[in-house]
Amino acid sequence: MTITTLDTPLAKPLLDWYDRHHRDLPWRVAPGMAARGVKPAPYRVWLSEVMLQQTTVQAVKPYFERFLKRWPEVTDLAAAENDAVMAAWAGLGYYARARNLKKCAEAVANEHGGIFPDTEEGLKSLPGIGDYTAAAVAAIAFNRQAAVMDGNVERVISRLYAIATPLPAAKPAMRKKVALLTPADRPGDFAQAMMDLGATICTPKRPACSLCPFRGACEALKLSDPELFPVKAAKKEKPVRYGAAFIAVTADGEILLRRRIDSGLLGGMTEVPTTAWTARIDGETSADAAPFEAAWRASGTVTHVFTHFELRLSIWRAAIATKVAVDDGPNDGWWEPVTNLEAQALPTIMKKAIAVAIPLAFKTSKG
Questions:
Q1: What is the pLDDT of residues 215-250, one digit of tens each?
Q2: InterPro entries annotated for this entry (predicted)?
Q3: Annotated active-site residue in 49, 106, 120, 154
Q4: Which domains, ranges and CATH numbers included, belong to the chain?
């Protein structure tokens, strides 16, 4: 959402607070740097915003730095092998982001000469960029007066105006409030200030209201209990799905892996053979569903919580004297040394499964 309001009264105290208390982040041009003429790099802003969706700052930092070291420019990322990008992303979760990241880099490199569009509308024309990311990149990288609202900003806005409508129904009203607050001057710093305020002061529990630059205007504080906001609709209980994973290991220390199809959950990632579980249906859980006959032994279970369901996998392990040729349709397998597992695009659930069957797998992996 782009707006045309003049500077708003609440922007100045927030920006003053941000100038003194901003977080130092590897993708950020801090106020002091900006005063020296340093400009935000759109590639770095975009990369960080994609990584930060549904993920904490602390989790993102090492991934961001590794990506930049390996692919310092968007054109480098565009030219990278898909499997290399997926492997570098492994562990960050929400793997559709990695697939869209690669597609977006290719579009910027091939259709825009390696230069990101500098408007919300232009950014939204790129693969994988929605309203939030377009607004964030437009504001932070290009100083466009765009309304940026993530989870931290939602919390700040809901308390500032004591918005009683439960989330997610309250989001449109919240976005309008953010639009009215966003100043024409320093909109990128304003957006980052709102995020920092929510992350460090206006926290979910025990907010430090006495330190908040909005304390004189905050409606929730006047009601004496900011923790009542944001109001959230009652959560539905997550369904539990079941399946099995099969860890086959040769005498010389190689493990059977395969690649998941590009679409759907964990699309394009590497996995050990598993049964056909999804978010909606259970898979087989017994050794009868193994990819080939062997002396499969039960090794335990692992549990992993996805956004919409919980998965419980029964783990089966087999010691294989000689490699078995595996023809599994679009999921053709291959044998990979256990010492090289860290270099594979294994999501967390697969690492958990392997670690149950081979406890030292990731301690001996060379990466």
A1: 999 999 999 889 999 999 888 889 999 999 999 999
A2: A/G_AdeGlyc_MutY, DNA_glycosylase, Endonuclease-III-like_CS2, Endouclease-III_FeS-bd_BS, HhH-GPD_domain, HhH_base_excis_C, HhH_motif, MIG/MutY
A3: 49
A4: 11-228 (1.10.340.30), 240-357 (3.90.79.10)
